[in-house]
Amino acid sequence: MALNGCKPNPQPTKLCDNNSHKISVLPRRYAASHPNPCANMPLKDKKSYKPCDLIIYGALGDLSRRKLFISLYRLENANLLEADTRILGVDRHDNDNAVFTAFVLKNLQEFLNDKIENSVWQRFSARLSYLKIDLTQQDQYLQLKAVLTPHTRVAVNYFAVSPVLFKNICHGLQHAGVLNQESRMVMEKPIGHDLQSCKEINDAVAKVFSEAQVFRIDHYLGKETVLNLLALRFANSIFTTNWDHNTIDHIQVTVAEEVGIEGRFEYFDKTGQLRDMLQNHLLQILTFIAMEPPVNLEAKSIRNEKIKVLEALRPITASNADEKTVRGQYSAGFLKGSAVPGYLEEDGADVDSSTESFVALRVDIDNWRWAGVPFYLRTGKRMTHKRTEIVIYFKQLPHNIFGDSFRELPQNKLTIHLQPNEGVDVQILNKVPGIDEHIKLQKTKLDLSFSETFKKSSIFGGYEKLVLEAMRGNPTLFLSREEIEQAWIWVDSIQDAWQHTNETPKQYQAGSWGPVASVALLARDNRAWEE
Ligand SMILES: NC(=O)C1=CN([C@@H]2O[C@H](COP(=O)(O)OP(=O)(O)OC[C@H]3O[C@@H](n4cnc5c(N)ncnc54)[C@H](OP(=O)(O)O)[C@@H]3O)[C@@H](O)[C@H]2O)C=CC1
Ligand SMILES: O=C1O[C@H](COP(=O)(O)O)[C@@H](O)[C@H](O)[C@H]1O
Predict the structure, then answer these.
(1) What's the pLDDT at 333?
(2) Domain final residue pick, 188, 210, 234
(3) Ligand 1 centre from 276 Cα, in Å?
(4) Is there a contact between 310 and 487 (Cβ–Cβ < 8 Å)?
(5) What is the percent of the chain where pLDDT is above 70?
(6) Cis-peptide into 37, omega within 30 deg
């Protein structure tokens, strides 16, 4: 079977950096409209370039529909897909290429916020094709033999299905003989539901793919502002020298979602917000804030520093879970003026469910840099509005010489807005201009909005960056096995503590900032959430 509309292995264009394993800073565009960046490369490097086949298993599923195809189209629109890249959708439903292509278009129309450009769509749709495989049936993978040619094209196998199928896919691909050392696999989070199941999945995958071939994705690591943490922290002496317990009082990370369960009750109810969001996205953000400077931007250096942070997380156990954690579940409420159902009224809901849709934690990191600096993390569904941000609160000054103007000098705050309205701002106190007898102070903001500063009409989401890096073979922004397992060790302890103390979730109204208990979590330490 030939892939729809794709010429077999046309003129190689580039991919100079297949193995450099560094975060790519410059966008590289394909040669159709730009000079070939490899034009002056030694012949041996040109020879090492191979075009890529991206194979998406679960191509009709939610992740593919809402995230993957949108991201791939946006890469196409930005001329960031190689001219010879092909995209093969695999799922278990009857479709031909035309029906699948129409399905992708319909999803773009529904989920892409921008206009679909005809010329871009023509280029993009020419890359698409579809194959029906029941992923539990080994022999059906043999169909891939007619499509994939591992010796001339690199296969990037994206597992956009439930982890229960990962083992099947690995065996199926092996059985079909379509893998070689250059093949890659991209694995979605959460990997398992605890340390044990995560190890089982990793072990099964390791029988077929070496660790270097495995790309464990966490789409938050592709988000512009998360990556900007590296720049902010390690390219600016003003922050580098003020980033520890001497100057920082505490740190808040909020990942508030407006969405509810979105038809994913069966998955979500078995998972909960702690495993769905905190075990991966929030802990990854935390490691980027807390890690020591890596030696360089190589995958190994960054991963090593992140693991050290995860190892230093103080365990939360049954003895302290009560004062350090809050679980919540939303009840019916209002969002943007419309009534929305409670968690237990969602489609397919189990009315007795005690799964949490909100979690807030006080996290302590037992190392030299962060001694005595709490990190407060919270994430929830159906909250007031979508807001993901990091707020770094600097310490109060030891003495106030402006008593008349400000009884208590407010803390300086550095806010990193991850989404929406990506940017960074710093709250500082300024003198109000004037010749009054007394100096008047006012809170002001040094405000850097990415869209205004960099004149970008739209900023890529996490998936664009990461799918591209997976196709380029750069593992820097993907997670190592050790990192994920370490994160599970810490999260399992919280889950065990909740089970042990029979901790039931506190109710919060949809459209609010979470249960009142989460306010108390900070109030206990004389602090308050950034609202
Ligand atoms: N959805 C999201 O926003 C996110 C999802 N993820 C992860 O991505 C992965 C996929 O999630 P999601 O897209 O939500 O899941 P879905 O269930 O929506 O999609 C999975 C797709 O795989 C198909 N499928 C299931 N069994 C087989 C089979 N035996 N053979 C062939 N195809 C099969 C399903 O078909 P059918 O419909 O017939 O079952 C469906 O089209 C999961 O690991 C999830 O944790 C990670 C981050 C976000
Ligand atoms: O991984 C997941 O992330 C989404 C939130 O992603 P965002 O980029 O929109 O912030 C979340 O809704 C979903 O439950 C979870 O599986």
Answers:
(1) 97
(2) 188
(3) 15
(4) yes
(5) 90
(6) no
Q: What is the CATH number of the domain that holds 380?
A: 3.30.360.10
Instruction: Give me the CATH number covering residue 47.
Output: 3.40.50.720
Query: How far apart are alpha carbons 352 and 47 in whole angstroms?
Result: 60
Binding residues: 92, 134-135, 189, 219, 223, 257, 276, 381, 386
Give the neighbor-by-neighbor strand order of the sheet with 387-394: 441-449, 423-431, 413-419, 387-394, 248-256, 375-380, 358-363, 325-331, 506-509
Q: How many residues comprise the chain?
A: 531
Average pLDDT for residues 141-161, to the nearest whole number? Answer: 94
How many angstroms separate the alpha carbon of residue 333 from the centre of ligand 1? 29
Atom number, ligand 1, closest to the C-alpha of residue 93 = 38
Phi-psi region of 187 (alpha: psi -120 to 50; beta: other; left: phi over 0): beta
Q: Is residue 18 in a domain?
A: no
- Are 282 and 342 within one domain? yes
Mean pLDDT, to the nearest integer, of 384-407? 90
Catalytic, 193? Answer: no
**Number of folded domains that form the chain:** 2
The pLDDT score that the predictor gives to residue 455 is 72
Is residue 356 over pLDDT 70? yes
Q: Which residue's alpha carbon is at the smallest distance from atom 39 of ligand 1? A: 61
The whole-number pLDDT of residue 48 equals 67
**pLDDT, averaged across the chain:** 89
Residues touching ligand 2 (Cβ under 6 Å) are 219, 257, 259, 276-277
pLDDT at 416 over 60: yes
Domain region containing 459: 221-523
Is residue 169 domain-shared with residue 226, that is, in the same domain? no
For residues 177 and 238, membership in a common domain is answered with: no
Query: How far apart are alpha carbons 321 and 221 in whole angstroms?
Result: 28
**Pocket perturbation via mutation, ligand 2, pick of 218, 224, 276 by most ligand atoms within 8 A of CB:** 276
Better-scored residue on pLDDT, 459 or 147? 147
Residue 207 lies in a domain: no
Mean pLDDT for the stretch of residues 432-460: 82
Question: Rounded mean pLDDT of 95-103?
Answer: 96
With both helix axes pointing from N to C terminus, report the angle between 69-77 and 462-472 in degrees, rounded to the nearest 10: 80
Catalytic residue among 175, 281, 385, 399: 281
Res 513: pLDDT: 97
| 20 domain-assigned | no
